[in-house]
Amino acid sequence: MTKQELLDKALSCNRCGTCRGVTQDAVPNADFSTQCPSGMTLFGEYEPAGLMYIARGIAQGDLQWNKDLAKVLYSCTLCGYCDDLCSRGYRHTPAVTILEELRKIVPQELKPRSLQKAAAAAEVPKQHKLAVLKNYGVIDVSGSGTADTILFADTTLIANSSKLSEIGFLIKTSGRKLGCFIDEPLPPVEQALINGGQQDVLERCVARIDRRLKQKGIKKVVCYNPESLSVLKRFSRSGVPFVSITQLYAEMLKKKSPKKLKLSAVTYQDPCHLGRYAQEYSAPRQVIAGLGLTLKEMWRSRNNSLCCGAGGGMLAVNPQLAKRYAANRWEEVSATGAKTLITACPYCNANFRQGKPKDSKIMDLTSLMAQAYGYTGKEAGK
Amino acid sequence: MKETVKKLQKIVGSEWVRTDSLTQYFYSSDVMTYFGQGALYPSNKPLAVVYPGSAKEVQAVINLARKEEIPLYAIGGGTVLLIGSIPGKNDIGITFDFHRMQKITVDKERMVVRAQPGATGLQVSQLMREMDFGYRPYFGGSPGTSLFVPYQVFTGQNKMAGYQDGMGINCAAGMEMVLASGEILRTGSMAHKQSPGWPHGPGPALTYLPFFANAGYGIVTEMEFRLFPTPQEVGSLWVTFPTLSSACTAMYEVMKKEYACGATVMGPGCWTHALYSSQHWQEGAHFVKATQDINLIGMSFRGSKAKVAFERKACIRILEQHSGAVMPDWMVAILDGHEANAAGWQQCNSPKICGTFNGKSDSGGIFVSGGVFDSLEKLEDYMDRGMKAYQQVCRDNPEFLSHPHPTVRLYASCGQTYLSMGGHSNAAGEVIFVVDYARREFLPMVGAIKAQFDALMQEIGMAPLGVGRDKRTWTECPAHFSMAQIIKKAADPQGFLAPGVAFPLSE
Questions:
Q1: Does residue B480 sit within a domain?
Q2: CB contact under 8 A, B354 and A47
Q3: CATH number for the domain including B178?
Q4: Looking at the domain assignment, is residue B486 inside a domain?
Q5: Which of A24, A177, B90, B363 is deepest in the core (most CB within 10 A)?
């Protein structure tokens, strides 16, 4: 993007402030009427307009990159709400595009090291524990095995044997034949590359993924991590549909009844990359309903959902700030009266553990599913 | 300044004082300023921005600024659709941002809502709706705009919810203001805990003092607005007229009968005014352009079902006697959103219409020209000739008219709203240009239109009315301005409150 293109995009924002609030009909409670995680916590230039001002200032030469600008830039969770809400009106400032560009052009010395590490991990898979999946009959498509549908192993899953075991168990229980690139994994791409301003690396990795999907004749890819789902949907040119693992669970519940879970009312966090970015709102809710749980929605839900605070690499760059962001959401969880918060994103899950009220618990949707079908954890070692 | 910053940090906390380059840049411009071309005013950077958390902190900052002779400026909650928050000169002063002061409380007994300056119109609207109350102030900008820039409550006409309860300003019952001396003054309904929600009493009748003074008299830290019960029924009526004169005459007839709770005469090109609350902004925007010659009255009704039905019928009869034609339902549907406004909820512009007006602008694209008149004839002359000038520019530049954004509106507001402001006029005309700055080639033609309107204004002889820091109604009126200067000298003898905004820098 040229400076002029960046400027033209940034000039679409005139700081009207609409993006700061949730649409009026969606939130009848004034306590939960603001939306931007960084804006509602740090105010002023930390609001979406502040980031647009960075773009204007940089493009026009009014501002020079420095630590202060980088601090604001990396306080944004890239949740995409400002962009989405703005686009619901006639005017549309493409905030996400602008932010991604800013993270690309920020000088190297101002890029947080933690993000660089995360990005590097996404490019080259090192030690992985995908072999666990073989215990559950998942086919290794890196060799001679074939499968129409595969599980995508992202950075949060690739070396996480307990989560792999839960997913493997569920695949086996569902009776579906699923594959995975086990011995020679695919690059475990996810949003981290964009957070770190390495879109070029991401595009290169996705091209590699596309080639291998084509070689193996893969028809569908199931993603556990919403941050992988959203980037694959966005950057893949393979034509292969990428779906959330929650869709798999929803189908499974229709065919096979789970055991009843002993849980009081629950609430659900729409992960930004599953909801806003990948437009998957119904499958997780179908799963919750299929498990016989009573869902108490938060005021800000679905496309008005408030980010948990982990996005944009926040958990790696500034965990303390991510915790402050999470506190905003915990207030809303408490307001529902539900004691269990369900998430379908490993980053939401990790961030919500920060500052969790004592009387509340967090459950990953996959773990909940596994539990409902009798997974005990002992299966992992078999 | 370093020493001052340390002192400020001690008052509000180190996190809430910012002096970095981005902060200064962010607070250096608003919709009337631009970083380069088309600016009505220059961008001026403050030296520091302070986020106070309470009136006590505001007081402490004011005391410090007075002692150290540092100018103070203020912005409500960080958005810029209301003007006046930019320092009068580059690299001077401290700007208050009231984001941390967003508290809203409702007193059902006294029928008032109290809000701090960082609260947004959206937040109050939500609370009112939830509690089944209505409130009347109307705020410019968008739902994200702060409820009130602390010194500049939007005195808009509040359209459909409007005139029976006065302008937005008339619904402000009291306020808490920190004066230049550091004294905290509580006016009107806030003078005493048990004060009823009367606009003028029993406290000092100074509630309206800081309006339009742009923080020149003091910094408002809290304000109370009157509440109203939600009506059983609300309705609206839209009637077109062949001439502005016939519309105004009809309007006076309606007002004499005290029918309708909000009524506005809108001259040619007026539809944008009618569209402010509309949820069908896009269709409406096209309509505006297609119906530049329409004269319109829009009004709303509220009360019992029988009252609304009766008033509506009676108004139709009166308006038809003056050649009015009731607009068909399909056309009215474009204007929906006004009922919610009349009920007292949607007291800010619909986000969609904001999208239309402010779309793709790189500094906000509103140029204002207009004024108040001492006779209907002058108003009509102004609107008629002004529209012809506008249409000529459009004919000369067809791409301007065919573009989805640039438009012009003219509206005439008759009657009690302006009378209630001091009786200096009974008619007003206002022209607002909304321009797409992204198409910078439009700037010269907008300038041409504005120049013609301004020239007309002078020729016809009227008091200019406008938005913008040096275009206040009363600051343009010598008698009013000299009065304001006397108050300013008494309230802020050192002149450190917002110099260069409502009052000249030298003051």
A1: no
A2: no
A3: 3.30.465.10
A4: no
A5: B363
Domain end point (choices B173, B204, B230):
B230
A282 Rama sector, left if φ>0, alpha if ψ -120 to 50, beta otherwise: alpha
Identify whether residues B172 and B255 lie together within a single domain. no
Chosen for mutation from B82, B114, B126, B439 (greatest number of chain A CBs closer than 10 Å) is B126
Instruction: Report whether B470 contacts B393 (CB < 8 A).
Output: no
Within 8 A by CB and 6+ apart from B432, the residues are B272, B366, B367, B368, B370, B408, B409
On whether ipTM exceeds 0.85, the answer is: yes
Record the tokens describing residue B238, joined without a space.
């839209």
Give the C-alpha separation, B505 to B507, whole Å: 5
Whether residue A95 sits in one domain with residue A136:
no
Residues of B in contact with A27 (CB under 8 A): 126
pLDDT over 60 (residue B39): no
Would the pLDDT of A282 be above 90?
yes
Count of domains forming chain B: 2
Domain total for chain A? 3
Q: Is B274 a domain residue?
A: yes
* A379 — pLDDT class (breaks 50, 70, 90): low
Q: B323: domain CATH number? A: 3.40.462.10
Chain A interface with B: residues with Cβ < 8 Å: 8, 11-12, 14-21, 23-24, 27-30, 33-34, 43-45, 47, 49-50, 53-54, 56-57, 60, 62-64, 66, 68-69, 72, 85, 88-91
Give A43→chain B minimum CA distance, Å: 6
- What's the domain range around B345? 233-464
H or E stretch at A192:
helix A192-195
C-alpha closest to that of B171 among B200, B143, B210, B213: B200
Q: Considering only CA atoms, which of B161, B146, B142, B162 is closest in space to residue B350?
A: B142
- Asked if the structure places residue A69 within a domain, the reply is yes
Of B23, B130, B144, the CB nearest to A16: B144
Domain region containing A154: 121-249
For the stretch B149-171, pLDDT in tens is: 433 444 444 444 455 555 556 67
- Please determine, for residue B445, whether its predicted confidence score (pLDDT) is greater than 80: no
Distances (CA, A) of B42 to A32, B45, B90, B363, B380: 37, 10, 9, 12, 34
Which chain A residues are closer than 8 Å to B99 by Cβ?
43-44
Residues B392, B243, single domain; the answer is yes
Residues A270 and A311 in one domain: yes
* Residue B495 domain flag: no
Average pLDDT of chain B to the nearest whole number: 72
Residues of chain A contacting residue B346, judged by C-beta atoms under 8 Å apart: 24
Q: Does residue A116 belong to any structural domain of this protein?
A: no
Residue A141 has pLDDT above 60, yes or no: yes
> Which chain B residue lies closest to A26 (C-alpha atoms)?
B126
Q: Do B143 and A21 touch (CB under 8 A)?
A: yes
| A77 confidence band (pLDDT: 50, 70, 90) | very high
